[in-house]
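hiii so um. not sure if this is the right channel but i have a protein structure encoded as tokens and i wanna go backwards to a sequence. like what aa goes where. can anyone help
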């Protein structure tokens, strides 16, 4: 195995604890890497007025991939109030660093696997095995928002009709970004032997933007006759996923719908303690547990680290260390099936590091068995 360079971005809150747990497992798996720590998160914002400083972006450019824990974010007003005094009145606005990384590095795929591990008491149904492909660069996340409508917009007839006190958020969807996320979903389906891809939209209402997405999805699907393709409105999809989760396989959708549906899918397989993400571009990727920084649990080492550990496995797969990635997933599965230790979300009282060591222990057994 070659020696990798990994940008290590634990962030704050429980981000640091789950990253420590992921490292235990990465080390036990024999993954050879230099972990280069990077500053990111709430403290950077307060001290420097930038939650994702330029030096951290530079670090990303010099590494093979990044691993990100979690960071605290607060509403715009609170964010400005918490800035160091000398940074007040500079007109700084807080934007989520993870969203910025996705956009600045063009990490256009947000890959979110949701698998019901056998023996997980939190499974909504057994055998759920869903994969969400969320478009990660555009849609409702472009950050083009207006608390009141700018005067020049009033020249557009549809805007002129809006109430005076309306706030607006603009959603942009391109054919190119839609095509490449759907393409990524189909390529994944082919590579992993998946039977079906479902494109999720709301084209009956968001005619322009979802229209573009749906059209692109149909064009891509036509090139994959071996994979079943269907489409669903996002509202109905929420209902059907809950009713018949086993009817679905790979789900592909625009940014905000993917954000929402991936939480629904995560909850069906145990909640945020099991939700892992890969933010993947052509040449770089950032892996993360999907959960937030849970400040009220910070420092207690109580949080389930499996989401971070599974994200570490996803990173290894993306780097090409496929066998080691599989071993990590198998070890997680094995640790869950054994029934102990369990963190509080699973009904137990074990801590973050107990769980990490349990997974590491299962890994070592695989090593010895070989
Ligand atoms: C996620 C999160 C982020 C998002 C937040 C933290 C900005 O909910 O990764 O799903 O909305 O994308
Ligand atoms: Mg989310």
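sure thing!! here u go:
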């Amino acid at each position: 195995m070659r020696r990798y360079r990994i940008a290590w971005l634990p962030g704050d809150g429980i981000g640091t604890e789950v990253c420590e747990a992921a490292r235990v497992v990465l080390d036990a798996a024999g993954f050879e890497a230099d972990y280069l720590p990077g500053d990111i998160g709430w403290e950077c914002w307060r001290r420097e007025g930038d939650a994702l400083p330029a030096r951290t972006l530079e670090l990303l450019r010099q590494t093979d991939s990044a691993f990100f824990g979690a960071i605290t974010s607060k509403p715009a007003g609170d964010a400005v109030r918490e800035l160091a005094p000398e940074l007040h009145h500079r007109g700084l606005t807080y934007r989520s660093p993870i969203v910025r990384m996705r956009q600045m590095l063009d990490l256009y795929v947000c890959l979110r696997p949701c698998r019901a591990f056998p023996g997980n008491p939190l499974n909504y149904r057994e055998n759920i095995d869903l994969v969400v492909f969320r478009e990660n660069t555009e849609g409702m996340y472009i950050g083009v928002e207006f608390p009141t409508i700018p005067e020049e917009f009033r020249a557009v007839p549809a805007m002129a009709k809006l109430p005076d006190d309306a706030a607006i958020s603009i959603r942009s969807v391109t054919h190119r970004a839609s095509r490449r996320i759907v393409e990524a979903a189909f390529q994944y389906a082919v590579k992993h032997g998946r039977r079906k891809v479902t494109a999720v939209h709301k084209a009956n209402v968001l005619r322009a933007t979802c229209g573009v997405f749906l059209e692109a999805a149909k064009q891509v699907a036509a090139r994959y006759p071996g994979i079943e393709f269907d489409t669903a409105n996002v509202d109905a999809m929420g209902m059907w996923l809950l009713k018949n989760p086993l009817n679905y396989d790979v789900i592909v959708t625009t940014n905000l719908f993917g954000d929402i549906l991936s939480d629904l899918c995560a909850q069906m397989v145990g909640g945020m303690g099991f939700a892992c993400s890969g933010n993947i571009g052509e040449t770089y990727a950032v892996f993360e547990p999907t959960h937030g920084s849970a400040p009220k649990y910070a420092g207690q080492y109580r949080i389930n680290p499996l989401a971070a550990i599974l994200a570490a496995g996803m990173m290894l797969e993306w780097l090409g260390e496929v066998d080691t990635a599989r071993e990590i997933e198998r070890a997680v599965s094995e640790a869950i099936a054994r029934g102990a230790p369990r963190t509080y979300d699973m009904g137990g009282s074990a801590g973050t590091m107990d769980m990490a060591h349990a997974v590491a222990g299962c890994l070592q057994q695989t090593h010895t068995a070989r």
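oh and The CA atoms of residues 276 and 290 lie 5 Å apart.
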